[in-house]
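Hi P.,

Sorry for the delay on this. The queue was packed all week, but I finally got your sequence through. Input first:
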Amino acid sequence: MARKTSPDLAALAASVNDALVAAGATSATAESLTGGRLAALLTTPPGASRSYLGGVVSYATEVKTGVLGVPADLVAEHGVVSAACARAMAEGARRVVGATYALSTTGVAGPDSQEDKPPGTVFVAVAGPDGASVLSLELTGDRAAVQQRTCEEALTALLGVLRQEETPLR
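Then the structure:
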């Protein structure tokens, strides 16, 4: 049986979609450890097609490099569980899909370590017209909890960028 989206995450996704529509902007996703959950959240609210264009689930390194254009030398130097990879994934999704903004998720959901990084090591990136920013997270819980918190952090990060850009600096 499919797990239901928590009301808080559904409301957060709806807020992100509303903010994107208000800004005349679109979004895309590049997901690794969240395996499509972020795209599912962004497409849950009615009218999501006004703002969400599409995404890539790049669970395998070859998809990160071949589809999203993450440089192989970046992967060799920093690994796929890194801020550098998250940034490159978000920039790649933005370019490939043609969206105003893109979110990416990469990390270790567990139960085993990857690239000598423990479960809960997560990187979320937001790429937009003014560049990209990356969040480094150390999350706790089982795979499902890490994936859910990652989605929450990604949506919150994009909403923060959108709200910051709608408030002009004085």
